[in-house]
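Entry:
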Amino acid sequence: MINFEFLEKNLETLRIQYLSAQPFPHLLIDNFCDEEKLLKAYSNVPELNNKSRDYAFANNKFEKSNYREICPEFMELYNDLSSERFNRILAFITAKKTFVDPKNFGGGLHQGKKNSFLDMHLDFNYHPLNKNWYRELNLLLYLNKDWKPEYKGQLKIKDLRTNDEAELDVPFNRLIIQQCAPYTLHGYDMTNFPEGRYRTSIATYAYQVHERLIETPRTTDWFPKENASFWKKQFAKNYNFLVKTKNKFFGSATAKNQ
């Protein structure tokens, strides 16, 4: 399903584009999948009802971790993304020994319904189950058929070190590879999709094995807008502590849903 031939023929160009992108390394790959197969997969996407656990920092956002169950085309995509062939491509593009999580912990099909948004944030850095796997990349495949800029929902990225930012369009069959680091903020503003249409994507994550931890393990760090309420800002400030306390006593709901 993945257009491997295109990727392998253009490795040098893709590597330069990724490493030189601003405000931090990222890459846009259009026609990432076989168009016919991805259209068939898209036609099988149901309306999701499992709300994401982003609390006050997202609105009307839903997810399905086991998206491969939806149709054979999604199973093929899942297998391609976790294949050794794709891992070799990723490692070359990023110039790092990266690999896709074969169980896709925390990833899956994401669906933003009416007035959906996702506040700017940093993702968890070390894998909750494999403690020395450092999260190097977000791989986001967009399924927004006939998307237009006025629908909004562009992926916003911002470098915490410099405050430089960019806004990336999210049309159908575009993969965005985005570096994960302690400064790589990302999210999206409130959407304006037509009735019955949703901001839809497949999220997959890639890692690197660390012999020693170079950062303090964290969950998601949220950065709500300046005009956010006092209580939302306080929630963001204490989010890591609250989630770690909850997981200590009740376990990770994300892990249970894999």
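The longest strand covers residues 108-122.
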